[in-house]
Amino acid sequence: MTQSIPKASPYPRSHLLAASGVAALLSLALLVFPSREVEAKKTYLNLELDNGAEQILQEKDDLRPDQATGDRGASPFADAGLSDNKNSAQADADKKKEDQTPTDPLSKSVTVASGDTLSTVFARVGLDANAVHEAINSSKDAKRFGRLHVGQALDFKLTPDGKLERLSSKLSDLESIVLTRNDQGFSFKRELVKPDVRTTYAHGVINSSLFLSAKRAGLSHSLTMDLANVFGYDIDFAQDIREGDEFELIYEEHVVNGKQVGNGNILSARFTNRGKTYSAVRYTSKQGTTSYYNADGMSMRKAFIRTPVDFARISSKFSMGRRHPILNKIRAHKGVDYAAPRGTPIKAAGDGKVLLAGRRGGYGNAVIIQHGNSYRTLYGHMQGFAKGVRTGVNVKQGQIIGYIGTTGLSTGPHLHYEFQVNGRHVDPLSQKLPMADPIAGAEKQRFLQLSKPLMARMDQEKATMLAANKQP
Fold first, then answer.
1. Among 176, 204, 380, 414, which residue has the fewest nearby CB atoms (within 10 Å)?
2. How many CB atoms lie within 10 A of CB 264?
């Protein structure tokens, strides 16, 4: 029979007891004495407490004797990468408080909100209805304060006894109005800012409509209309515009304190329509007459404008065999119909005398103008007539004579426009229009001195633009 003999321990019992004691002491040391890294984190967190600088510095010197010889004149927070934010913030607050100017309790400003009237605005600053009546009725000009718009600011200055001393409002970047109390009541003043004028180049290619392309080129609606009027004698903007047509111009910008506040005149322009390029330069003669001429000094202005309605759609052309949409029978259409929204302005095609401003059978409200001995134009289906337009008066080319409507035999709002030469109806779209006078010979050299630099600048601006577009 085999008998098991127990194995002896490889370590003496005394060694095991000693090792256990050492392990217990190390555990106790770790609990009582944290590592340097932990203590450093602890010191960082304590920086936000209201301890004195000397106490924190002393703690750090005790923990990190290798840095105890550092510059004691430096901020005690430098080791942690901080600055004395609390002291700095307090100093900034004190300075800001010193710099602030006390608000004048007698000066108040109100911004007009939707639904506001002058009475509600006055009430907001403590002024009653009598104050409104006294101010607004002090003069005819003072009533302009009653024409409020949302977002408009009104600035009030009151007297110590609570009466209105001064009222002002900025109507635009160029205009302000002021009402000031005096011995007689109130005095009104209109203050105008004279803008700086600079010239700007713009270029565009039409891919949908002139207005959209002009807007992309940075042109305002009014400037686009001016551009169309310059070339309106040669280009029918209702039917001649095509995709790919191109325009460029140099025009005036009005600037106040570096901000654009409006536009001035077009100084020069080019318009390429169906591959043909037209040029125009603005010129004022020695007699003070201003007009546009091509680069050779020939007038852009004709005796008649091509279309009497801006950007309207041609709904029916000149035809001697058209079926009338209401009468339903073949009947000559001796004019051109321009469809446009009701109320669209209609312009006189040329200078002349009004032979009729009133009802005329199927034309409804109509205007007939005699232009010299040979030419006559008719405008039918008007909604109404422009102010001052009546039988017997003289009108100028481009003057608004009425507004598009649907009076007479009409299926919808449009203008029926007829053009007669020596009593015979002709197609106004194909009629070659007589020219206006060119630049006077005595002023030709003066005109060229103006036009050549403008044309050269447009060439240079376009070349620079094209070169920039080719760069990758």
1. 176
2. 16
Which tens digits make up the pLDDT trace of 104-115? Answer: 788 999 999 999
180-204 pLDDT, tens digit per residue, is 999 889 999 999 999 999 999 999 9
Report the CATH number at residue 166. Answer: 3.10.450.350
Whole domain around residue 146: which residue ranges?
A: 107-192
Distance CA 252, CA 248 (A): 14
Rounded Cα–Cα distance for residues 429 and 305 (Å) = 11
Q: At what angle do helices 36-45 and 53-63 cross, to 10 degrees?
A: 170
Query: Whose CA is closest to 305, among 379, 222, 406, 201?
Result: 379
**Cα–Cα distance for residue pair 252/315, rounded to 1 Å:** 36
Distance CA 118, CA 123 (A): 9
Question: Encoding tokens for residue 195?
Answer: 């803008």
In a shared domain, residues 384 and 337: yes
Alpha helices, DSSP H only, in 232-332?
A: none
Give the whole-angstrom CA distance, residue 232 versus residue 349: 11
Same domain, 331 and 379: yes
Supply the DSSP string of 351-385, one letter for each residue: SEEEEEEEE-GGG-EEEEEEETTTEEEEEEEEEEE
Are residues 382 and 323 part of one domain?
yes
The residue among 448, 461, 471 whose CA lies nearest residue 248 is 461
Query: pTM to 2 decimals?
Result: 0.58
Predicted confidence (pLDDT) per residue in 30-59, tens digit: 544 544 444 334 333 333 434 443 343 343
382 CA to centre of own chain? 34
Residue 416 lies inside a defined structural domain of this protein: yes
Which two tokens mark 95? 């300075």
CB proximity list for 236: less than 8 A, separation 6 or greater: 306, 307, 429
Distance CA 448, CA 430 (A): 32
**Which of 429, 448, 428, 430 minimizes the C-alpha distance to 438?**
448
- pLDDT tens-digit readout, 374-399: 899 999 999 999 999 999 999 999 99
Judge whether 169 and 153 are in contact, CB under 8 Å: yes
Q: Which of 192, 220, 238 is the last residue of a domain?
A: 192
